[in-house]
Design brief:
Shape: globular
Distance between the termini: 31 Å
Number of helices: 4
Strand content: under 5%
Number of strands: 0
Structural class: mainly alpha
Radius of gyration: 12 Å
Helix content: 55-70%
Order of helices and strands: HHHH
């Protein structure tokens, strides 16, 4: 995380992180990209982060890369307690 990242809002930081994951997976074979993004988020993001991601998606996904938006269908939505 760069020095400037600490000044971003929670939404901006989460969008940035999700897009960074998507950027990494652009170097993978096309058929593995979307699944790779979803798998990474499912494995390494805690439920709170995934819940926040789905809130951003439900509000239109502003700033999220198309790959993240496509992967959202494969990301595990945390259960509401």
């Amino acid at each position: 995380m760069s020095h400037d990242d600490k000044f971003k809002s929670g939404d901006e930081r989460l969008v940035y992180m999700a897009n960074q994951i998507a950027t990494f997976f652009t170097s993978q074979p096309k058929e593995e990209q979307v699944a790779g993004v979803a798998d990474h988020i499912n494995k390494f993001w805690e439920p709170r982060m995934r819940t926040h991601l789905f809130q951003i998606i439900e509000q239109g996904g502003m700033g999220l890369s198309p790959m993240v938006m496509e992967a959202s269908g494969q990301i595990n939505r945390p259960k509401v307690a």
